[in-house]
Amino acid sequence: MTAEPVKLPEHERAYRALREMVLYGELAPGQPVTIQGLADLAGLGMTPVREAIRRLTSQGALVFKGNRRVEVPELTLAQYGELAFARRAVEPELARRAVENMEKTDISALEEEDAALDAAIARGDVRGYLQHNHLFHAKLYALSGAHVLIAISEMLWLRSGPPLRVMLGRHGTANLPDLHREALAAMRAGDATAVAEAILGDIEQGIAQVSRSLGATEGGETGQGLR
Amino acid sequence: MTAEPVKLPEHERAYRALREMVLYGELAPGQPVTIQGLADLAGLGMTPVREAIRRLTSQGALVFKGNRRVEVPELTLAQYGELAFARRAVEPELARRAVENMEKTDISALEEEDAALDAAIARGDVRGYLQHNHLFHAKLYALSGAHVLIAISEMLWLRSGPPLRVMLGRHGTANLPDLHREALAAMRAGDATAVAEAILGDIEQGIAQVSRSLGATEGGETGQGLR
DNA sequence: CGCTTCAGAATATGATCAAAAATCGGGCTG
DNA sequence: CAGCCCGATTTTTGATCATATTCTGAAGCG
User: Which residues contact B127 (CB under 8 A, 6 or more apart)?
Assistant: First the structure.
């Protein structure tokens, strides 16, 4: 089940590694990233790293920072609002479509993911929360078979990951959104509309919390305004 | 006002060139694309071309075919439906937001683009139609300042371009959607909702035509079904 | 305070290695 | 005897690396 042991090209490995670093908050927003630094870190030549960075930048997971540096973008509240708008439009639809193709074993796999997520929350494990939360949604959406919408969703998650990580770093894993139970119950009942609603609610809760977090920093702490 | 005469790196030039080829139908769906072929064609080394192709594939404008080949994807009707869903969700919103930031000179620029578009239609110039139609929408959306949504929209256009080109190749430039006049009138009136509706209508007309075109080929011509 | 110089990083090139596809030849079968 | 299929060779293509070149940022000097 581990698929190919050593079969994917190095630039693909570099891409996935960097991708997870962004998605699961191992790179903080504003933290500069150099090609050579990553190449040395990963023990790779710089060409594969270069290509991985290009792919990530074209997805908005990294941005060219003025001069020559690449870094994880710091989102403004307005930009996060755009993300939220798109996620509300796309993800419930993915959930709805996923229910059509769903087998019992798929539901079981999602339940396992949710259990791992709860365990991470109980442990206060931020990285574990981010990982299993993403996997829960990703696995659900993958069932839809809607590759175009999935690609959009992946891009949105890549951009949402870092601010979510920042919020978690401040408030810990308490009071986290978890409407996954409701979603799973609706899946077992085969009620696509209820699943879509549960997912929408789950997203909304996360959006609200991150928006509050972003609003707080923009208001005072990091002087983004005048002066 | 031509900005930087010779200032962008070669991989950026390669990216833009390839991007326009996909967007404006110079590469047909199913047509294979080789790195070295493009490198020789553009007179560049293969590294910049390589990176350009990576960026395009990560946006879905190109796909890895089997193992070694890269080509413009041929969409199924279902996949085009996903594109349509996302475009309906994103583009009217972009149009709505654009109206907020709109100056009189912006409207003039859009009118010029629309005039060039009409001229291309009258001329039966397919490439010109694709180009000015894209630029009309792209310039409008750019005014919104919503970079995240713009990125999504660009990705959707990259995927929609080739099937639109195929449809045009079959039916010519007759009966093309053009609710741009209505959109422009609403812009002058400052009515954001009416602009969004006009854009939605414009999109819907295009979607309907391409869907019919795709449905026809899948039904019979290209034996995609059994036998 | 402005200009020049220096250092570091990114870009681009070419070569080299590995893999896959297409082609060609031989053997087998009808 | 002719046609077809299978396998090996060849050629094309892609991936990676090491290196040279260029550009940007910063520091030092006039």
Answer: B24, B25, B26, B120
